[in-house]
Structure formats: C-alpha cells, structure tokens
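RECORD TYPE: inverse folding
INPUT: structure tokens
STRUCTURE:
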C-alpha cells in the first residue's frame, strides 16, 4: 500500500500493485454500496421513520444475523480461507483446485444452517419475548416473530453466497464479492419502493430475500470461470475439513460473544420506549459507512496475503504489513470520526428527515451516532488485527479478547443506558471494542517481535491533531454562516474540513496521506 511496505508485500504470486488495486476496487465498491444503502435508508425512513413497525423489522434480523455470522459469515471465512489457501499452495494431488473440500464445506454448511433455521422458526415468538425484544408490546413481538421467520430464508441463501465469496477471495478475486452487496441493497430498496405499500413492513423482508438471491447469483459466473466443480457428500474424513471445524470452534464462540454484546444493547434499547431501537440502528448504519469502506476493504484484501505470509513463516513481513495497514486505517478513520460528530446532524437531516422521520427522530439518531462515531477507529482496526491471528490459524486469542470486551460492554451498558439512553449503549460498545483491540495488539507485539508501536502512536497523534483542526474548521464555518440549509452545511462544511485535514496532516508529517492519491488512482 505504499513505499514503506513494498518489500513486505512483494511476493512471487502477489504483487504490491495487485494489493493496491484490489483495495481501491473494494473501497470504491463499498463506497457505492454505502451510497446505495443511504438511498435505501432514505426510502425506509420516509415510509417508516422510527416507528414501532420499523423497530420490529430491525429486531427481526438479530437472531438470523447471529446464525449467519456463527456458521457461514465470519466464522467460516476466517477458518476456510487459510486452509484452502494452504491446500492450493501445496498443490494437493487429489484435489488440486480445492473443489472437493469446498463442496464438502458447502454440504455441511447447508445441513447445519437449514436445521438451525427450522428450530428458530418454530421458537421465534418465545425467543422474541424473552431474548430479542422483551420491552416490545405483545402485538409488536408477534410481528417481530413473523418477520424473523421470513428473514431466515435470506439467511440460508446468504450462507451459500458467503462461501462462494470466500472461494473467490482465495483466488485473489475481490470484485464480484464486493459488488454483491449492491445487489442486496437494490433488493431491499425495491421492497421499500414497490412492496411496502401493499405489504407494509413485510415488503422490506420480501425485498431482502430477493436481494440475497441476487447476492448469490452475481458471484456464480466468476466461480464457474475458475473451473468450479461440485461433489455430493460430506467428506467428513478429510483432514482439512476437520481442521476447518477445529478452527471454527473458538471463532464461533467469539462471534457468540460479539453478538451477545449486541443482543444486550438492543434488549436494553427496547426498554427505553418506541423509537430507541430504530435510533440505535440508524446510528450504527451511519457509522458503518466509513468503517466498511476503510476497515473492511483493507481487511478483506489483506487476509489472503496475511495467510500466505503466515504459512511461509515470514514474521517480519507479517509485522510490517500489519503496522502499515493500521497506520493507513488511522489516517482515514480518525478524521472520519470527527467528521461524523461535527456534521452528523445535517447529514441525518439531509438523508432521513422527511415523511415519518421528523426532528425528534433526527435528535435521537444523532445522539446515537455521536457515540457510535467514537467506536469507528476501534471497529476499523479490529478488521485487520483479528485477521493477523486468523491467518496464523489462531482463533483462541481473539475469543479470549472478546470475552473481556463482553464483560466491559455488559457492565457499561447497564450503567449508561438510562442516563444516556441509546447513546450510552453505543458508547459502551465502543469502549469495549477499543479494549479488545488493545489486548490483541499487546499480544501481537510479543508474538511478532513488535508492532511498530512508536510509529503507530506517532501516526495516531498526528492524525488526531489534523482531525481536530478539521473539526474546528467545520464548527467555525457553521458559526460564521448560521442558518444555511443542511445540504450546504454537510457538503461545503465537509469539503472545507477535508481540505483542512489534508493540509494539516501533510504539515504535521502524516505520511499515509501521501498514499491516498495512489490508492484512489488505482
């Protein structure tokens, strides 16, 4: 990603330009996806605002999302990619393309996901009443349970689609897996535009099902181009499959812990009255916009490379790649945090304040966003830090770190949700994730012989100073020109803030800023 890591990433099969190009493509795709997500949320906000009906829609995804992440999302990907990468590197004679292993994983995946989905569908209502949303009215709990059952259909489809994406990642193809979420968002938007009127909030679920199907279908042509072949059967005697399952164990527990954090905060939010679950979710979505573009894009592209470096035992390059990636993340996420806090209110007004979404909804969402923004740096860094351990086939260390994070989140959430409402729940999550990242960095420091802590600290301080200058410029702009339309405040204030950050960052010696034109150019 720059001159400082040229040597660390120059390998026979993976060149620096490929890393930069792939990261740039993913950032662009994620940016477009977030723009589309904004459009989706604008349509949804106009139709439903922060109503009880939308509360039910948000809550209905909680357990299906956990199922997806536990089995097919983060858990499977972090175990499957390193093992398949190693299998391909060793040129396994019985399975040179890895398709037998991939087929066995797919068949096992479907068996488990369909079975658990049926159980969740049967017990949906008691799960909503006692776990997901105990604070909802009985009518809204019944609606949430009905929506959850339909959501499980898209979960099954997404499980297959995520495995297809992981197969493409092992072959250093990132474009279609990055484009697939665009199709998913188009599906939900179509549901909001054309199906919400006749079917109410159920129209959003129908759109989500169509979007998940498109998410899968758009990736299949490239998989076929790579010569994909399917074998029936489970091949549970395959040692690599058993290795994947062993690696998944701690990762599954890790995701359980992470999702318990979210279950806790949404459970508490449901007790704060109508609209608080929606406000918390809108704020999370807004924070996820820069987090996905920054942290997820870099983490996804680097993971196969980190896995290869770990498989070769190249610790110096692994350490350098981690440090440089974190410096770039800091250079991008710190100003994004300040920007969300300084411009959050006009951004929310421009995006959502129409129809059922009024000024009270804006105030509630901004309070949530302001605290979510504080978690942006930690969530972005986590995307890279945990992948360093997964690349080394270590899924235990991230689990232990997340257990500490869960305890902190639970304690802070109970202490803060009444005085700070949804904002307190967002703050508790941010503090907990920050501690989790610091724990893993401390362990990586010992394991890798350092993480270039001095340069990381220097980059953090320099970017923080430049970002504070950016924030001061935005606040000064608003003070000098009060009463401007929110779209002007967001656009002109954001543009001014960006210029100030770039100028201040270059003056303060933030070298990573000089890499951004190359990344964007690619």
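DESIGNED SEQUENCE:
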């Amino acid at each position: 990603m720059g001159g400082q890591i040229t040597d660390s990433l120059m390998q026979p099969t993976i060149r620096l330009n490929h890393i930069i190009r792939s990261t740039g493509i993913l950032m662009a795709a994620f940016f477009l996806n977030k723009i589309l997500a904004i459009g989706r949320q604008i349509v949804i906000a106009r139709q439903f605002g922060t109503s009880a009906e939308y509360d039910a829609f948000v809550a209905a995804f909680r357990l299906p999302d956990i199922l997806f992440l536990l089995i097919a999302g983060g858990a499977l990907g972090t175990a499957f990619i390193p093992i398949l990468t190693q299998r391909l590197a060793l040129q396994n004679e019985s399975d040179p393309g890895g398709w037998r292993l991939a087929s066995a994983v797919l068949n096992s995946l479907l068996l488990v996901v369909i079975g658990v989905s049926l159980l969740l569908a049967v017990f949906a209502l008691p799960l909503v009443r006692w776990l997901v949303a105990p604070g909802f009215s009985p009518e809204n709990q019944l609606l949430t349970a009905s929506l959850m059952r339909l959501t499980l259909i898209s979960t099954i489809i997404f499980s297959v689609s995520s495995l297809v994406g992981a197969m493409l990642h092992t072959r250093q193809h990132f474009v279609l897996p990055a484009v697939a979420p665009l199709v998913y968002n188009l599906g939900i938007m179509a549901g909001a535009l054309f199906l919400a009127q006749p079917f109410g909030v159920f129209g959003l679920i129908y759109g989500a099902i169509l979007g998940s199907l498109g998410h899968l279908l758009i990736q299949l042509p490239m998989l076929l181009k790579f010569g994909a072949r399917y074998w029936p059967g489970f091949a549970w005697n395959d040692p690599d499959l058993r290795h994947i399952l062993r690696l998944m164990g701690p990762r599954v527990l890790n995701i359980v812990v992470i999702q318990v954090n979210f279950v806790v905060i949404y459970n508490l939010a449901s007790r704060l009255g109508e609209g608080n679950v929606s406000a918390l979710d809108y704020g999370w979505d807004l924070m996820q916009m820069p987090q996905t573009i920054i942290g997820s894009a870099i983490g996804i592209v680097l993971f196969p490379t980190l896995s290869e470096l770990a498989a070769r035992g190249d610790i110096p390059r692994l350490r350098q790649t981690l440090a440089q990636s974190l410096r770039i993340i800091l250079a991008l996420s710190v100003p994004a945090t300040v920007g969300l806090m300084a411009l959050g209110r006009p951004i929310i007004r421009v995006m959502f304040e129409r129809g059922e979404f009024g000024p009270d909804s804006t105030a509630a969402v901004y309070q949530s966003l302001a605290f979510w923004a504080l978690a942006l740096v930690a969530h972005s860094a986590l995307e890279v830090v945990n992948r360093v351990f997964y690349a080394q086939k270590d899924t235990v260390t991230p689990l232990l770190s997340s257990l500490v994070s869960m305890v902190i989140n639970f304690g802070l959430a109970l202490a803060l949700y009444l005085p700070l409402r949804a904002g307190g729940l967002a703050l508790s999550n941010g503090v907990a994730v920050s501690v989790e990242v610091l724990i893993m960095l401390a362990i990586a420091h010992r394991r890798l012989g350092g993480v270039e802590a001095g340069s990381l600290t220097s980059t953090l301080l320099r970017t923080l100073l430049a970002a504070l200058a950016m924030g001061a410029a935005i606040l000064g702009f608003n003070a000098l020109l009060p009463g401007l339309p929110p779209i002007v405040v967001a656009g002109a204030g954001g543009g001014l803030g960006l210029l100030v950050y770039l100028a201040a960052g270059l003056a303060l010696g933030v070298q990573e800023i000089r890499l951004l034109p190359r990344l964007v150019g690619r």
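NOTES: The CA atoms of residues 194 and 203 lie 8 Å apart.
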